[in-house]
Amino acid sequence: MELLLTRPVVVGLAVLGALLAFCASALGATGKLSEVQAKRLNAAGYAAMAASMLLFALAGLRGRLF
Q1: CA-CA distance, 36 to 33, in Å (whole number)?
Q2: What's residue 1's pLDDT?
Q3: Number of domains the chain contains
Protein backbone atom coordinates (compact mmCIF):
# COMPACT_ATOMS: atom_id res chain seq x y z
CA MET A 1 0.00 0.00 0.00
CA GLU A 2 2.85 2.38 0.74
CA LEU A 3 4.07 2.09 -2.84
CA LEU A 4 0.68 3.25 -4.15
CA LEU A 5 0.87 6.40 -2.04
CA THR A 6 4.17 7.60 -3.50
CA ARG A 7 4.42 10.69 -5.67
CA PRO A 8 5.51 8.88 -8.87
CA VAL A 9 2.52 6.55 -8.76
CA VAL A 10 0.00 9.33 -8.08
CA VAL A 11 1.43 11.60 -10.76
CA GLY A 12 1.83 8.70 -13.19
CA LEU A 13 -1.84 7.76 -12.88
CA ALA A 14 -2.88 11.37 -13.45
CA VAL A 15 -0.69 11.66 -16.55
CA LEU A 16 -1.88 8.29 -17.87
CA GLY A 17 -5.48 9.35 -17.41
CA ALA A 18 -4.92 12.64 -19.18
CA LEU A 19 -3.20 10.90 -22.10
CA LEU A 20 -6.00 8.36 -22.43
CA ALA A 21 -8.67 11.07 -22.40
CA PHE A 22 -6.72 13.11 -24.96
CA CYS A 23 -6.26 10.10 -27.23
CA ALA A 24 -9.95 9.28 -26.98
CA SER A 25 -10.86 12.78 -28.11
CA ALA A 26 -8.23 12.98 -30.84
CA LEU A 27 -8.79 9.52 -32.28
CA GLY A 28 -12.55 9.84 -32.01
CA ALA A 29 -12.52 13.17 -33.86
CA THR A 30 -10.42 11.79 -36.72
CA GLY A 31 -12.63 8.73 -37.06
CA LYS A 32 -9.96 6.21 -36.09
CA LEU A 33 -12.11 5.03 -33.19
CA SER A 34 -15.81 4.37 -33.19
CA GLU A 35 -17.96 6.41 -30.83
CA VAL A 36 -18.27 3.46 -28.45
CA GLN A 37 -14.52 2.85 -28.42
CA ALA A 38 -13.81 6.54 -27.82
CA LYS A 39 -16.27 6.60 -24.91
CA ARG A 40 -14.66 3.52 -23.36
CA LEU A 41 -11.16 4.96 -23.73
CA ASN A 42 -12.35 8.26 -22.26
CA ALA A 43 -13.94 6.41 -19.32
CA ALA A 44 -10.66 4.55 -18.72
CA GLY A 45 -8.83 7.88 -18.69
CA TYR A 46 -11.21 9.36 -16.16
CA ALA A 47 -10.97 6.20 -14.03
CA ALA A 48 -7.18 6.55 -13.93
CA MET A 49 -7.50 10.22 -12.94
CA ALA A 50 -10.04 9.34 -10.25
CA ALA A 51 -7.69 6.69 -8.86
CA SER A 52 -4.93 9.29 -8.77
CA MET A 53 -7.13 11.72 -6.84
CA LEU A 54 -8.17 8.98 -4.41
CA LEU A 55 -4.57 7.99 -3.73
CA PHE A 56 -3.62 11.65 -3.26
CA ALA A 57 -6.39 12.06 -0.68
CA LEU A 58 -5.39 8.84 1.10
CA ALA A 59 -1.77 9.99 1.21
CA GLY A 60 -2.91 13.25 2.82
CA LEU A 61 -5.04 11.45 5.39
CA ARG A 62 -2.14 9.18 6.30
CA GLY A 63 0.13 12.18 6.76
CA ARG A 64 2.28 11.33 3.76
CA LEU A 65 1.94 14.54 1.80
CA PHE A 66 4.75 13.84 -0.59
Answers
A1: 8
A2: 77
A3: 1
